[in-house]
Every structure is written in C-alpha cells, then in structure tokens.
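G., before I forget:
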Amino acid sequence: MRKKINKLLLYVIITILAVIIGYPVMWLFFASFKGNAEIFTSASLLPEQFTLDGYLNGWKSIAAVPFSVFLINSCKMVFPTVILTVMSASVVAYGFSRFEFKGKKLLFTMMISTMMLPNTVIMIPRYILFNDFGWLNSYVPFYVMAAMATNPFFTYLLIQFFRGIPRELDEAAYIDGAGKWRIFIQIILPLSKASLVSAALFQTVWTWNDFFNPLLYINRVTDYPVSLGLRLAIDADSVVNWNSIVAMSCVSLMPIIVLFLLMQKYFVQGIATTGLKS
Amino acid sequence: MHKMQEKQRYLMKKRHFKDKYQGYLYISPWLIGFLILTLYPFVVSFMYSFTDYDMFRMDFVGLKNYIDIFTTDNLFLLSLSKTILYTVVSVPLKISMAMLVAVLLNKLARGRAVYYIIFYLPSVLGSSVALAILWKYIFKKDGLLNLLLEAVGITGSNWLGDPKLVLYVMMLLPLWQMGAPMVIFLAALKNVPADLVEAARIDGAGKIKIFFRITFPIISPIVFFNMLMQTIEIIQIFTPAYLITKGGPMKETYLYSLYLYDTAFRDSKIGYASALSWILFTIIIGFTLVFFKLSNKWVFYGDEQ
C-alpha cells in the first residue's frame, strides 16, 4: 500500500513539474492561433477564436522584409556550416584517435581546454580578423569556423566514439593493404553514423538558434538569419502586433522542435557521451 | 621465403613511418584553425588590453585600462557583481533541479519518454530569440503569468520592471533549461550498480541515505564536470539579458557580457574591452581553480579512473 502511494506521489510530482516546464512552449504554440486582442486578455490555453492572421501578417512584414527571406538566409548559414563541421570534426577526430605522433597529448589537451576558454576573450580579435579579411556581412565566418573544427565539442564527441571502434577492424583492413584514408572512409565512418548524426543535429540546432555571432558578423537586414529577423520585431517597443510575433517565433522554433521529436535518440546520445567520459 | 618476410617487414615499416606524419595531416584543419582563430586572438587580445584602440588608431597606454577599470569605473563593479550574483545563484539551482528531475525520472517505470521530451526540450531550444520573446511575454506586466495569477485571484507584480525582482526572474530561465545536465545525470544514474543500492536497502538504509552515501558519490565526478561547464557558460550569458531587459531596469540586469559588448562594439573601445575580457577570464580561471581545489573534498574518483 505504501509503495503504491509513493509511486502515485512520484507521478504527481513529476507531472506537476512537466506542466510547469512544458506550459510556456504550449502556450506559445496555441497563442499563435489567437487574435491579437485575445493573447494578453484571456488566460485560457486554447484560442477562443481560431485565426491564422498572426501567421499571415507576420510572414508578410516583420520589419519590411518578408520572413521567408530570414528563413532562406538561415538555411544558407546552417547547411554548409553543418556539413563542414561534420567533415572537419570527423577527420580531426580520426587523426587524434588512430595515429601516434609527437606532441599528440599536448595538442589534445589544448583542444579540450579550448572547450573551457571563455568566448569573451577571443571574440574581439576574431571579429577584427574577420573584418580585415572582408568576411563581415557574409556567412563565411561561420563556414570557416566550421571547416576548421573550431568548436571542440564535435571533435571530442567523435573521438569518444572512434575510440570505441575495435582496432582489429582497422588492422585487418591495413593488412589487406588498405591505406589510412580508405580505412577512415570505408570502415570508421560507416560505423559511426549515429554519432555523425548527433554532431550534425547539434550543430544544426546551435547555428539555427545562434543570436550572438550573427549579431556580430551580419549587419545587413537582407542577410539576417531568423534570429536577427525576429529580434527586429521585438525591438520596436511600440509594437502591438503580438500575434504575428508569436506566430513567427513558432515558425522559427518549428524546425528545431520537429528535428528534436524525430531524432530525440541522437540528441540524448550526443550529450551523454561527451558529458560522461570526461 | 625469408626474403619475402623481410620485404614485408620493410614495407610495413615504411608505412608506419608515413603514418607518423599522416597524423598531423589529419588534425591539420583543427591545428591551423586553432593557431589562427583561437591562439592568435587569445594572445592579441591580451596585447590590446594595454592599448587605446578604436579599430583605426592604436596607442600603447600601459596599465591605464586596468587602473581605470579598478579605480573609476562604476559600471565594471556593478556589472561584475550582478553577474557573480546571477552565476552563484543560478548554477547550483540549475544543477540541483537537473539532478532532482533526473532522479525522479530514473524511478519512473512507465511514460518516461514523454516526460523526457518535455524536460529536455527547453534546453534544446537554447538561447534562441523566440525563447527570449516567450520569456518577455510571460513576465511582462500584462503577460501570461499575471493573467494566470489573476484567474486565481492574485495580483501579480511587474516582474521585469521591478528592479528588485528582475534579476531573479531572469534566473528562472537557466533553471527552466536544465535539460542538458539532466540528460547527463540520467545517463550517469544508469551506471550506478543496482546491486550496491539493493544491498544498502536490505541493510536498512533509507532512500535519502542511499542517495547521499551511494548514488551521489558515484556520480560526483559528473556533477563536478557539469557545475564547471555551467559556471563558465552562465557567467558569460548574454542573449536573454540583451533581448529581454536590455540590461534594465536601472541596470539591474546589466550583466558583464552586456557591458563588454557595449564597450567593444557600440563604443569601439577595443583596448578597454579587451582589458575587461581578461579580467573576466582571470575570474573564470580563479573559479575553476577553486572548483578543482574544493573538488577533492566531495568528488569521488573510483579506482577505474
């Protein structure tokens, strides 16, 4: 009997927590279908009068640029960044996990410690560097940082995974005359699909959500990704078209939420491996 | 026969020799990137901190920036104290919350997946602008929270407008986003040997005792790692304060990162901002060292490590 009560209590507590934590996003979703006047006058979750006005108005004009422009820009920024990240991180991770060379330990330690290096110390000279190269107002800074495996999170994630692949597989292929590159392409990569997907997903979400870096590097409104585009909408304090802002917020979150729901497993794996084995 | 073996050995050796340098080739993207995009900026920002630099003209001024910061700069002290308060309160809160939820979830027999999604989602949405908007709309004077409170007969506050409240309201945001450490804790809890817990239970240990005597020591290295990473992340937090409150009201949420950003990118005082960033860096290093020092007392490293 006591056990049953305890169990019930557990479910009650956890459900209350889930409601508190889940409510804001649910509210945002349903509020996007409310009329402008209703959003901040009614406490009910479901719209009394269902309307798509928020989406229609928001799509046309937040800050005179159609929202589709921001979405397309975000895609232009995110996709190459993700592909370059996965490519560079896997090559570098292969180097660290399958080769012996002088100074490897030191280099590895340096790479890991950049994970803890605060961005604030390097962002100013980095900005000046990109400015000198003439890369501001383009997505090149994002591509270059991705191609150079600048974020050690991904490399580390893949190193952890590559280390788990039995070396006997490499050696068998090696004796058969396969070079290191072929071993990488034909053995290591196919076996690492799950963690490559994890890395790609994290980079997709982070780049899509990123506000700070675009804020630094991109100044032209027509080049704004979704994050900066949305910010234009809230910046004008006089705005009263809440429902179109809410609707566009939903549009900006939707790709991430869908990805998360479909690929939840990979998000969990990625976080758990990097967090655990350190 | 013998000759063939020798030849094979020679070939292997040659390949091995090639491997030695191939390693550098594979890590070269990172190495080049590290030198140009991380190490160079790191060194240069230290040098900038001794100059007066506005992106056009650079004058060496010695320690002037640092002296000014510590003697005449009110905003420095203000933003630093707000940031430290923010970090010191919200990191332990976030970690405890993540651990609590992980422990509860770990006990669930059924329906774990659904709860998992709900608890993890806010963290996946990260520092997106949409979440900042959501936060603003929840806590503004006629926002969602006050609507809900009104429905049960309570008059809410002006959460974001009240200088006494606003920083604490902003602390709820990282608390709400405790998903990532929660996932890590859940994975760690799965590694706690069930027979150990069972044995303690048979010996008559209560749940709380089991948690503090067995579970917590086993996952303590992971708690430590999470505390450290969260501290580094939260002490530099920028987006929410920049978007939701713009540092206000009355500079109550003017966090260090906002001050740094304004100094560097609004006022173009690159040298001064670099000095500010190096002070923050030193503080983070200090935090880290203290963390490691204190960790001897409570972090338990099993013999396999």
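Chain B has two domains: 2-48, 64-298. Chain B touches chain A through 92 residues (CB under 8 Å).

More on Monday.
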